[in-house]
């Protein structure tokens, strides 16, 4: 490369950085002022650095084959900053790409085009009420839920984390809870500031005061004494899984609804957001967000079944070890799980394949499943061996799944990668329910094998938050449609 080419490359990079730096305050202001979250092809730009903004734009070329430069998308976000909007998720990348490369504007100016595309939220009154959230339990999922709720701080934040409930506190308990929220061996440091408020028995995180309540039973708490009313309790302890147990929460003052972060027993609705979240009605007091694996596989199974039909199949889960297993060999009531999780692959059962039918009844009785726990702390994979009702090809199936990931109603649940080098740690922090590994797809006539990665902690937690939003009546529009 010549000196001139080197100089041009550097200049191009600096230009992208400058535009990303100009976008950052607008992105933050749109969220804090109007509750508008800006995305680029499904990637949220809220609270990200300039490099993430640049990388999100690069994804467009990978998917569409055409570059969308930051200098081309900047006029659109600049125009958005001058509009009065209601809360929504607005995809800047799709708006700009459709206008510039798909002739969606029909001769309109950028401002007029945005008025048309965002007509549902332009000059609309924000009438979405804020919702109090309490986390019952503060383990792996509880702390990730806290991170997700805290990162959306601002006057327009609709999901307000008010408290966490844990068992009896010893000396130094607050500091230890705060430290576990501040530092995570898998997901890295907390993005912000965390301090301990001993006087109020609270953890302060990025301006949010989170009351730490000590209790030994879910029906023994008066949340109203802490100013918490009509709260949604997100139970992530895994202790209570049926209506009788989870119903104990509803006996505490200040509680309106309960959301379980594990597979439920009995008649409780098992919800996979994106697939059957519309089954949630205002009268539902107890709802379950299913399991991480069920959330990972059901969206992909739904779109494949809708397009090609699924006669039957088997789902094998290669799952990271969890806190339920032993670090070294010791007694465990379950078969095989007493053996060291860090040293062994452990064959175990999973109800995820059968649980799919609770969210997708048309697949009832068509799937079997099993699981292998492996010595990694996070990110798992589902291998789906499917017998289809119609024949297809690898290219056709992958193209269809890419389209679903980019433009379907399941675009927040299904992600897609064409990388030949991706491994499990690359998916830590993925906000999708599952990520289709297109390079591993196998198709032979009417038989298909799909490999779907998923961050069984963070990706699942994102799904839980979406279910909680639906329970609170806070389902935001995704624009453009």
**Mean pLDDT metric:** 95
Shape estimate: globular
Helix content: 25-40%
Total number of helical segments?
12
**Using DSSP, what is the number of strands?**
21
Which class of secondary structure composition applies to the elements?
alpha/beta
| Major sheet: arrangement of strands | 6-7-8-5-4-9-10-12-11
- What Rg do the Cα atoms give? 23 Å
Question: In whole angstroms, how far apart are the ends?
Answer: 43 Å
What's the name of the CATH homologous superfamily of the largest domain? Dihydrodipicolinate Reductase, domain 2
Descriptive report:
The protein is 32% helix and 22% strand. With 481 residues, it is α/β, with parallel strands linked by helices. The chain has 3 domains: 3-117, no CATH class; 131-262, 3-Layer(aba) Sandwich (Rossmann fold), CATH 3.40.50.720; 292-457, 2-Layer Sandwich (Dihydrodipicolinate Reductase, domain 2). The strands form 3 sheets. It has a 9-stranded mixed β-sheet with strand order 6-7-8-5-4-9-10-12-11. Strands 13, 14, 15, 16, 17, 18, 19 and 20 form an 8-stranded mixed β-sheet that branches. A 4-stranded mixed β-sheet has the order 2-1-3-21. Helix 6 crosses helix 12. The longest helix has 32 residues, at 3-34. It is globular and about 65 Å long.
Layout of SSEs?
Blueprint: H1 3-34, E1 36-40, E2 43-44, H2 50-64, H3 70-80, E3 88-91, H4 92-101, H5 110-117, E4 131-136, H6 140-150, E5 159-166, H7 173-182, E6 194-197, E7 202-205, E8 208-214, E9 231-235, H8 243-246, E10 255-260, E11 269-270, E12 286-288, H9 292-308, E13 310-320, E14 346-348, H10 352-359, E15 367-374, E16 380-388, H11 394-407, E17 414-417, E18 434-437, E19 442-444, E20 447-454, H12 458-471, E21 478-479
């Amino acid at each position: 490369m010549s000196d001139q080419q080197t100089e041009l490359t550097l200049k191009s990079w600096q230009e992208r950085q400058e535009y990303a730096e100009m976008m950052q305050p607008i992105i933050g202001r749109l969220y804090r002022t109007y509750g508008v979250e800006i995305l680029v092809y499904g990637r949220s730009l809220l609270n990200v650095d300039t490099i993430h903004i640049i990388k999100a734009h690069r994804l467009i070329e990978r998917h569409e084959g055409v570059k969308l430069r930051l200098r081309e998308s900047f006029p659109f976000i600049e125009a958005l900053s001058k509009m009065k909007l209601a809360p929504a998720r607005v995809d800047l990348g799709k708006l700009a790409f459709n206008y510039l490369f798909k002739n969606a504007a029909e001769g309109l100016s950028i401002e007029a085009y945005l008025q048309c595309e965002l007509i549902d939220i332009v000059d609309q009154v924000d009438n979405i009420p804020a919702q109090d959230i309490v986390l019952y339990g503060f383990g792996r999922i509880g702390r990730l839920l806290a991170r997700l709720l805290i990162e959306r701080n601002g006057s327009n934040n609709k999901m307000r984390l008010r408290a966490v409930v844990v068992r009896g506190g010893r000396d130094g308990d607050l500091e230890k809870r705060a430290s576990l929220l501040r530092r995570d061996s898998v997901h890295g440091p907390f993005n912000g500031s965390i301090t301990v408020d001993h006087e109020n028995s609270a953890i302060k995180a990025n301006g949010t005061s989170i009351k730490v309540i000590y209790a030994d039973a879910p029906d023994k708490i008066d949340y109203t004494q802490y100013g918490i009313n009509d709260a949604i309790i997100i139970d992530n302890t895994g202790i209570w899984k049926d209506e009788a147990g989870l119903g104990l929460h509803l006996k505490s003052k200040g509680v309106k609804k309960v959301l379980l972060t594990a597979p439920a027993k009995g008649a409780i609705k098992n919800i996979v957001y994106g697939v059957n979240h519309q089954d949630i009605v205002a009268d539902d007091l107890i709802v379950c967000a299913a399991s991480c694996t069920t959330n990972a596989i059901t969206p992909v199974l739904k779109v494949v079944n809708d397009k090609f039909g699924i006669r039957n199949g088997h789902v094998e889960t290669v799952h990271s070890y969890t806190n339920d297993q032993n670090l070294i060999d010791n007694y465990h009531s379950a078969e095989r799980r007493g053996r060291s999780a860090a040293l062994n692959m452990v064959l175990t059962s999973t109800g995820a394949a059968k649980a799919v039918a609770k969210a997708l009844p048309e697949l009832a009785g068509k799937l079997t499943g099993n699981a292998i726990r492996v010595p990694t702390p996070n990110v798992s994979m589902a291998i789906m061996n499917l017998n289809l009702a119609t024949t297809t090809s690898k290219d056709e199936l992958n193209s269809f799944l890419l389209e679903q990931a980019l433009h379907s109603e399941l675009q927040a649940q299904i992600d897609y990668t064409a990388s030949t080098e991706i491994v499990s740690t690359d998916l830590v922090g993925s906000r999708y329910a599952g990520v289709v590994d297109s390079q591993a797809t196998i198709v032979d006539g009417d038989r298909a094998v799909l490999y779907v990665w998923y961050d069984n902690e963070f990706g699942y937690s994102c799904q839980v938050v979406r279910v909680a939003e639906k329970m609170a009546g806070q389902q935001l529009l995704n624009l453009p449609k």
